[in-house]
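F.,

This is the one I mentioned.
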């Protein structure tokens, strides 16, 4: 036995771990075992070391070039209602909408809590 939980979708016992997610080999359902508020979970921190939460507002601390655009996100721009992405492989762990740019992902190291 692997010690992993059964699939919450089809209740199959044939599950495996893949890049931080649990995957069902029967129905291909994927889910995370990370539970919000878990003492073992460190959280995502801003450039000053403050813990960020879903729905927070942040301020960009340096100009950020936007891939595929000639303009950039300017230092001091306020971003409202962020959504955190845990287990982000590329480091872009904040999902947000920025006025004038639309939906994009940011790295928490380039923002501070507002």
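My design for it:
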């Amino acid at each position: 036995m692997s010690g992993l939980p059964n699939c919450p979708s089809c209740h199959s016992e044939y599950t495996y771990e893949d890049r931080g997610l649990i995957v069902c080999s029967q129905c291909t359902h994927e889910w995370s075992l990370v539970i919000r508020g878990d003492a073992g979970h460190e959280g995502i921190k801003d450039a000053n070391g403050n813990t960020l939460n879903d729905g927070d507002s942040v301020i960009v601390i340096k100009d950020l070039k936007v891939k595929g655009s000639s303009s950039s996100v300017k230092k001091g721009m306020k971003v409202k209602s962020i959504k955190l992405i845990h287990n982000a492989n590329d480091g872009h762990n904040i999902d947000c909408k920025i006025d004038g740019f639309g939906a994009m992902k940011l790295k928490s190291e380039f923002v501070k809590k507002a």
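Confidence is low (pLDDT under 50) at residues 35-41.

Talk soon.
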